[in-house]
């Protein structure tokens, strides 16, 4: 198992926010395929967002630790040419780790299906 690379710059998070979204009870998964000119050799890149609305620093850090462990455990299921951002909800703190894993697996499958769809052309 290889630890997925991390998204660290704001521009990377904003770019992922423009991609697709998959809602779950404990988090929202944002995903965006990287362009061909961007480095695909890095593999999957994952970022984590926990807002101040969730709680104080102790609570936010505990949630981020759980999400990082989850991303490491399921690193084989991330698409190598995609950037992901996991936006936590308050329920992520108390949810059993196995349930978080199952939700992430489902969200990754749904995100992959959405990303593989052809783009919808808007009428002028």
Could you give a quick summary of the protein structure above?
With 124 residues, this protein is α/β, with parallel strands linked by helices.
Write up this protein.
The protein is of the alpha/beta class and 124 residues long. The protein is 40% helix and 20% strand. The chain contains four helices and five strands; from the N terminus they run E-H-E-E-E-H-E-H-H. The chain has helices spanning 10-17, 57-73, 91-94, 97-116, and strands spanning 5-6, 20-23, 27-33, 45-49, 82-88. It is globular. The chain starts with a strand and ends in an 8-residue tail after the last helix.
Span between N and C termini?
Answer: 47 Å
Give the ordered list of helices and strands. EHEEEHEHH
Strand order of the main beta sheet, please? 1-4-5-3-2
CATH topology: Ribosomal Protein S5, domain 2
Number of helices: 4
Structural class comes to: alpha/beta
Question: Helix proportion of residues, in percent?
Answer: 25-40%
The major β-sheet equals: 5 strands, mixed
Q: What is the CATH domain class?
A: Alpha Beta
Number of domains: 1
| Mean pLDDT score | 89
Shape: globular
CATH architecture: 2-Layer Sandwich
Low-pLDDT parts are none
Total E-strand runs: 5
How much beta, percentage-wise?
15-25%
Rg computed from alpha carbons, rounded to a whole number of angstroms: 15 Å
